[in-house]
Amino acid sequence: MAAALRALTILTGAAALWAQSPPAQPPAGMLTPWEIAPVLQEISGHGARLADALGRINVRSWIDHGAPEAYLEQWQSAIVQAKALAETAGALARTPEKLSAGLDVLFRIQALETMVGSLEQGMRKYQNPADAAALAALAAQNGVNRSRLERYLVNLAADQERQLQVMDSEAQRCRALLIAPSQPSRKR
Question: Is residue 2 assigned to a domain?
Fold first, then answer.
């Protein structure tokens, strides 16, 4: 009974201290969720524009002119990836503190950049160099936003690690207090 009362007292005290602490501020240099949300919306819009541009490419005519069939599969995959990027980045803009979703968006951007680079080479060889340059220019428009997202995710991960360390040390401290032998009350 005494141990339970002591545990309840410790938890009540910890809750009171937590409630009195000021709201957590992001580390210096880290974008806040409301600052990264517009960047994610821009990434989403870029994904949609890229999907539209990719949809206008006629890869079947490339194959008729001797291009490898692999371009067709890569082109289809790039369209799917661009549409998924638009969707996932838009969803992440509503909850930007989700690290796993942020990594998903970043990995989609990187995969899409690789596929678009390959399709651009195919366009230069089998279609029109000017169209390839336009696709490359469109793809490059997302570079600044990708860099901002990368920095945000690194800072978010570091901040979450720091918070986990603080929670772990507090849990260890509370556990030590609960396990410590109780002091008998002194009678007067």
Answer: no
The answer to whether residue 45 sits within a structural domain is yes
Contacts with 107 (C-beta within 8 Å, 6 or more apart), sequence order: none
Cα–Cα distance for residue pair 111/106, rounded to 1 Å: 9
Cα–Cα dist 102/100, whole Å = 5
The predicted model scores a pTM of 0.74
Determine the distance from the C-alpha atom of residue 161 to the mean position of all C-alpha atoms in its chain, rounded to a whole number: 15
Pair of tokens at residue 72: 């067709």
Q: Which two tokens stand for residue 76?
A: 């289809």
CATH number for position 160? 1.20.120
Residue 58 lies in a domain: yes
**Amino acid identity of 29?**
G
User: What's the pLDDT tens digit per position in 89-116?
Assistant: 999 999 999 999 999 999 999 999 999 9
The answer to whether residue 87 sits within a structural domain is yes
